[in-house]
Amino acid sequence: MVDKERLAAAVKEILAAIGEDADREGLRDTPDRVARMFEELTAGYADDAATHLAKTFGEDGGALVLEKDIAFSSMCEHHLMPFFGKVHIAYVPDGKVVGLSKLARVVEVYARRLQLQERMCAEIADAVFGCLAPKGVAVAVEAEHTCMTARGVKKFGSKTLSVAVRGDIPESAVNMLYALAGAGAGAGK
Ligand SMILES: [Zn+2]
């Protein structure tokens, strides 16, 4: 559980440290606002992917399931800055499938934490693989990191791509995820 009082005090301290007047009108509510924001952005710690993947449906076809363009926003643990983009999930079921909205819930569980893109990608793949026991799963994450675009090298629009594969999944499916993520990166890539 988030200690909002402590968070607000810390934000006030940051404002003082950068030479701001935390009591001026525009900043008066900022510490409490930021505290509530952090509570929302870290809500995934109190959530469990397994609960969202518990309700499954029987399926014998074994056809590839693809859920693409799941939008997410997370926070990089190195800078506490947002990184955001899309997740694409492909899996080959082995008897059970899950409602497509549940995969979006799983993305939220891991995005609403302090994260690294690669770890988030791996955690989503592990959750789907562990809970659904499919033949195989592949997850691709494409994201823009504001710690790279708003500061430092300031490469606006540059995207980072991660892919995690578990089990047995056709190479064509993995290539499709790469294409989806690459196509989403736009002309700047
Ligand atoms: Zn960062």
What does this structure look like?
This protein is an alpha+beta fold. The protein folds into two domains: 4-41, Orthogonal Bundle (GTP Cyclohydrolase I, Chain A, domain 1), CATH 1.10.286; 54-184, GTP Cyclohydrolase I, domain 2, CATH 3.30.1130.10. The protein contains seven helices and seven strands, in the order αααββββαβαβαβα. The chain has helices spanning 4-17, 30-41, 49-52, 100-111, 117-132, 146-149, 171-184, and strands at 56-59, 65-76, 81-92, 95-98, 114-115, 136-145, 160-167. The strands form two sheets. Strands 5-2-3-6-7 form a five-stranded mixed sheet, with helices on both faces. A two-stranded antiparallel sheet has the order 1-4. α1 (4-17) packs across α2 and α4 crosses α5 (117-132). The radius of gyration is 19 Å and the shape is elongated. It starts with a helix and ends in a 5-residue tail after the last helix. The structure holds zinc ion (ZN). Zinc ion (ZN) binds at residues 76, 78-79, 81, 145, 147.
CATH-assigned homologous superfamily of the largest domain: GTP cyclohydrolase I, C-terminal domain/NADPH-dependent 7-cyano-7-deazaguanine reductase, N-terminal domain
Count up the domains. Answer: 2
Proportion of residues in extended strands: 25-35%
Q: Which structural class is indicated by helix and strand composition?
A: alpha+beta
